[in-house]
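Listing S7. Sequence submitted for prediction.
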Amino acid sequence: MSKSRFSHKALVAAMTTALLAFGAPAMAQDEGGSERSSRADRSSRSAERNERRGGRQAQQKQEALYPNATRKEPGVQASQRLVKDLNALSEAYNGQDAAKGLPLADQIIANERANEYDKSMAALLAGQLLLNDDNARAITYLEQAIAGGGLDNNNHFQAMLIVAQLQAQEQDYAAALASLERYLAESGSSDPKDQALKGNLFYRLERYPEAIATLKPLVEGGGEVDPQWTQVLMGAYAESGNNAEATRLAEQVAQATPDDKRSQINLAVSYLQTDQNDKAIEVFERLRSSGQLTEDTEYRNLYALYLNSDGKEREAIAVINEGLQKNILQSDYRTLSALAQAYYFSDQIEPAIETWRKAAPLAENGETYLNLARALHQEGKSAEAKEAARQAIAKGLKSNADAERIISGR
């Protein structure tokens, strides 16, 4: 039997998809969340120190983080009668003692004698005590702090930004975008990190043209660029069908960061998306030669590229066997089936037969047993071919015609 009975492209394992999309970075902290939370902490602690000192003069000396804000400073200080309670809450906050601090905050918020500053500061500290432990409650407290209107602009707008970041972290992207847009409109912030978060949120909401319009000036503006901004912009270009622009950016990043595996993988992905498979193979092989292929999806993409290229079966065999030897690829049906195909189409029939013998019991249906039966029949091993054909029928085939022909000895 000739190899024409096997369909090369039909037998080749489908290209894995795990790497075939630009992954957007994690939200909130990766977009400046840690820095902003720290800045908010510093600002809160500074406000607490000012309040304990009788703070108006010291508060006026604080750096204004939002000079373009539309909101006027409320100019409200802590109530003298609640200074002791606020100090106790401050100590609990500084010790990150939520069990002690949250009841104190609730008491201040519920106290009829507390003014706007007292309640807003208590809610702010309570919210920050819950960060990353209970973000839903943290958001509720922070929104109370904002609505209370008693915070200075630094703390007020930092609280608004943290709410947006937490909502993004919890994957509530629509709410995060609404919170962020309010923050940007009222604070007058021109910080590129804030715009980058906005672009990332547009990307998450699949509003790719708006993501591109927001991120492109940041990436191409000539200032300091976070690689993650470029990564999300590449993703937005790719998702909107502008693969050429995505590839241009990927090449630019990869050239600037030759030792960064993520940027090299993104470059390979961009080549795949523009049908430049030879270039994708070159990138994967550079990573392989330097020992940087460490994930099964990376090996699968490389051997699938070889199997989908004319005359590259031996290269696919080398990649698969290396992955198996390193225990990066598992001896599962998908891997063994691809290896058997590569052996068969490179005229290594005996290894193909041995590998199909291992793969066939792992298959969901009888098609792999049928491939084994065909190869055995081709090699004149009739008895084994007939048995494999029977197993193929028993396991289920789309059509029994070929298996029955082998069993009948034709």
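Caption to Listing S7: primary sequence and predicted structure tokens for the chain studied. DSSP finds 22 helices and no strands in the chain. The first helix runs from residue 8 to 11.
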